[in-house]
Each structure stands twice: as structure tokens, then as C-alpha cells.
Write a structure and sequence with these properties.
Elements (H helix, E strand, L loop, with lengths): L2 H10 L4 H12 L14 H10 L6 E7 L5 E6 L5 E7 L4 E5 L3 E3 L8 H4 L2 E4 L2 H16 L4 E7 L9 H12 L11 E5 L3 H8 L6 E5 L5 H7 L2 H4 L2 H15 L3 E7 L7 H14 L4 E7 L12 H13 L4 E4 L17 H15 L1
Parallel strand pairs: 4-7, 7-8, 8-9, 9-10, 10-11, 11-12
Antiparallel strand pairs: 1-2, 2-3, 3-4, 5-6
Helix pairs in contact: 1-2, 1-3, 5-6, 7-10, 11-12
The structure holds S-adenosyl-L-homocysteine.
């Protein structure tokens, strides 16, 4: 659902401001899935909107509910590419984790999405539609979506235009109306995107998936590190920090006997002190095994790692993923359909 496109339809037809407000309310407050449900709008407008800015562009293929209340939806784009979104609950303030791409080109070795390759980038409308699904699902239990994290499938900074347009639609008081600080963009370290974000006035949060304190290990886990090694990444984050004064969230996945040694915690602390003193919050992430052969760190190793950060006065939180029983946890968003969709797209191109 592309709210900008819907606005353009009304603008083109010279519709009065109250019609624009009705249209927007139908989407963001009533959470309609078809313009037929927008009873406040005249029929001809509904028809025009259905053609140029459909209220639903994707189909929902599957919805799964975990014991902890986490809900995952699998969508298919109109050309058959899968995308997944996950709604996580905490009282009445829910967080939704959205996909920015179908599949991912970065091939991080620990990540399920990384193993499936790249399908295509999602449009701003396809990303926004995941949020609307989440808002609808939250409404079932009288809750609202209060946080958006771009931590589903894909590398958001490799689809930055669409992601920023999505953030604007989400943040705009005449859009979804969510504070920019409630939106987090997570990157594996795509430096051109970090530099582009520096120029972005919207105060979205930036999270960087670091996962290793040295190049040898990081390149092994995250091939993107060969192109943008830690030194360059830290320089980009320093530029970002200096320009925006914003805190940077550092994601660090704890992989048993891979990156969770005490020395590695010390090196992580050194790295952050040297480059971003006082400017970070480290999120230690519990690993959800994905068939990579790697496992989550043993609890005593987690405790020792945390103790180092504690001693070094590095602000940090240990995060446990939700929805693991339905493969809805971080990095588990892999969809069998992707290879098939890519094949179909290739055949389509061959025919054209
Ligand atoms: N490409 C972006 C956003 C998508 S991944 C990025 O790399 O940040 C969102 C987060 O989930 C990243 O920190 C990623 O490293 C982490 N992640 C990937 N696989 C995971 C898994 N199996 N268990 C826990 N976290 C995982």
C-alpha cells in the first residue's frame, strides 16, 4: 500500500483536503484492506484508488502464532516474491520487524536469509503494507505498533530510497504518525548507505550488526567485511555520530566459541572506546540456530562476556529473541518460495 501514490490520485483529481484526510484515515486508522471498505469515500474515488494505489498489493500466504504471542506473516508480492514480517508483543506496545528485501545479497554465514540469495528489493508500498498488517494484528488485542525495526529479510541500506520513503510515510503525522525515533534501521555495514543517512534529517535510529571485533573473523561471518572492513566501518560510524550526535546501536550476536571469548569482549570494548566513546549501546543477541552449524553461546560464556562489558563500562543489553518456535526469530526468516520466485522471474524475462 503506497500512501504517496494514493495522495497523488487525490491531488490529480483536485480532491479537497477533507477527502485526503478521509483516505489517509481509512488506511492508517481503520486499517482497511480494500478501498471498497472506505465507506466515507465516493465510489468513483474508490475505483480510481483501487487502480492506481491498491490498498493491498501483496497476498498473505501464511500466518503463524508462537506461544509467547509473537505473530509472523509470510507475504507474496504480486510477482511472487516472498517477504516476512514479525509482530512481537510487550503489553500494549508492540514492535514489528519488517523486511526491506526479498532475500538478501550479503550472505552472512549465520543467517537463514543469507543462505537463500537475493530476490529483489521491496517497494516502499510493500514495506508499508507489512506495517499495516502488524497494526491490524495488534488491534485484535487492543494494542498498537509502537516500534518498527528493519531487521527482517534484506539489507535496508541497499534499498535506501524505498526504505526512507517508507520511513517518511510511517513518520508523517499525515501518514502513520509514528515518531522517527521509534524506527530503527539495521545494517550489516553498507557504508554508502551510512553516509547517505547522515544527510537524512529524520531522526531514525541506526543499528549496526558488528558480530566480531576483528577483520579476520568478521570477514568469515560477514562477507561484506571484505569490501568494507572494520576500520572503514568505524570511520563511517564516526562521521555519522559527529554529524547527527545520535547514539549508535551495536548488534553483537553471541556465537558459541566463535566470537564470545573474553579477549573478544575486550577487543570489542577497545574498538568502541577508540572510535565511538560513549556513543553506543551494545545489544547482545541470543543466536537462533539456522542450520549454519553454529550455536548460541553457553550461558556461562554469555555471563563472562557481559562481565567484561560491565567492567569496561560499555552500555549493553542482552536480548533474547521471540517466536523461535515458529522460526520467527532474528535471522530465521527464510522462505522456501524464493528460489521458485527467482526461477519464475527468469522465465518471465526470457519470454519478454
Ligand atoms: N541486513 C541487516 C538487517 C537484517 S538482519 C543487518 O545485517 O543488520 C537483523 C539482525 O538479525 C542482524 O543483526 C543480524 O545479524 C541478526 N541475525 C541474523 N541471523 C540471526 C540469527 N540466526 N539469530 C539471531 N540474530 C540473527
Amino acid at each position: 500500500m503506497d500512501l504517496d501514490a494514493a495522495n497523488a490520485v487525490l491531488l490529480e483529481r483536485g480532491a479537497p483536503a477533507y477527502r485526503v484526510a478521509q483516505m489517509r484515515q481509512a488506511i492508517t486508522r481503520d486499517l482497511i484492506t480494500s478501498w471498497d471498505e472506505a465507506s466515507t469515500l465516493p465510489k468513483d474515488l474508490r475505483v480510481a484508488l483501487s487502480e492506481a494505489a491498491p490498498a493491498s498489493e501483496m497476498t498473505i500466504e501464511d500466518v503463524q502464532r508462537a506461544k509467547d504471542g509473537t505473530v509472523k506473516a509470510r507475504f507474496a508480492t504480486s510477482d511472487g516474491f516472498p517477504a516476512e514480517a514479525v509482530l512481537m508483543r510487550s503489553k500494549d506496545r508492540h514492535t514489528v520487524c519488517l523486511s526491506s528485501q526479498s532475500g538478501c545479497a550479503l550472505a552472512c554465514t549465520f543467517c537463514a536469509t543469507g543462505t537463500m540469495g537475493f530476490g529483489r528489493s521491496l517497494t516502499k508500498g510493500e514495506i508499508f503494507e507489512q506495517l499495516l498488517w502488524a497494526a491490524r494484528t495488534a488491534r485484535e488485542s487492543n494494542a498498537k505498533v509502537r516500534n518498527v525495526v528493519m531487521m527482517g529479510m534484506g539489507e535496508p541500506l541497499q534499498n535506501l530510497d524505498a526504505v526512507l520513503d517508507f520511513c517518511h510515510m510511517t513518520n508523517d503525522p499525515d501518514g502513520f504518525g509514528l515518531g522517527a525515533r521509534s524506527i530503527a534501521i539495521s545494517t550489516a555495514g553498507w557504508i554508502p548507505g551510512i553516509d547517505a543517512l547522515i544527510k537524512e534529517p529524520m531522526q531514525v535510529k541506526l543499528a549496526i550488526s558488528l558480530h566480531a571485533p576483528d577483520d579476520a573473523l568478521r570477514s568469515e561471518l560477514m562477507p561484506i567485511n571484505r569490501r568494507y572492513p572494520i576500520k572503514d566501518l568505524m570511520a563511517a560510524l564516526k562521521r555519522y555520530r559527529q554529524a547527527t550526535k545520535r547514539r549508535i546501536y551495536v548488534e553483537y550476536l553471541l556465537l558459541n566459541e566463535v566470537n564470545d571469548r573474553v579477549e573478544q569482549a575486550e577487543r570489542l570494548a577497545d574498538l568502541l572506546y577508540a572510535n565511538l566513546p560513549g556513543g553506543t549501546h551494545v545489544n547482545l543477541i541470543w543466536y537462533n540456530p539456522t542450520g549454519s552449524g553454529m550455536t548460541a553461546s553457553a550461558p556461562d560464556r554469555v555471563a563472562r562476556f557481559q562481565a567484561v562489558l560491565e567492567k569496561r563500562k560499555i552500555e549493553h543489553t542482552l536480548r533474547r529473541s521471540k517466536g523461535a518456535d515458529i522460526d520467527a526469530a532474528c535471522g530465521q526468516l527464510a522462505v522456501r518460495g524464493l528460489q521458485e520466485a527467482k526461477q519464475k522471474a527468469r522465465e518471465g524475462r526470457a519470454q519478454a
